[in-house]
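pls read this protein.

:::
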Amino acid sequence: MTVALWCILIAFVLPYLCIVIAKVGGRFRLQDNHDPRDFLESLDGFPRRAYAAQLNSFEINPAFAAAVIVAHLAGNAELVTINVLAVLFITSRLLYIICYLADWAILRSLVWLVGVGLVASFFFVSI
């Protein structure tokens, strides 16, 4: 398996890391598990931002996974290029989560834009 394909797994795990941060920061209790979505919607501050980072991670993951798979199937891009783009994407997602948690809105948006650009790059290198 290539590094880029492993990065799909890492991208899949990152939202769950965010939700653990949200639940711990929001003082999640077992009784909150009867309606965890309501609990998460009631959060504010740091835990709420962790929850929002989780949602955004779930939104971008299908595009990233599709881009990696298309790049592999097209066969026009060198494997090293695909792997580097995938690692850069994961790095951008980690920075995005950090920026979200730290409430650095403008920097977060810039990092998000870089991540979207990286997803598009998989298609461009596959032409």
Q: What stands out?
A: DSSP finds five helices and no strands in the chain. The CA atoms of residues 99 and 108 lie 5 Å apart. The chain has one domain: 3-125.
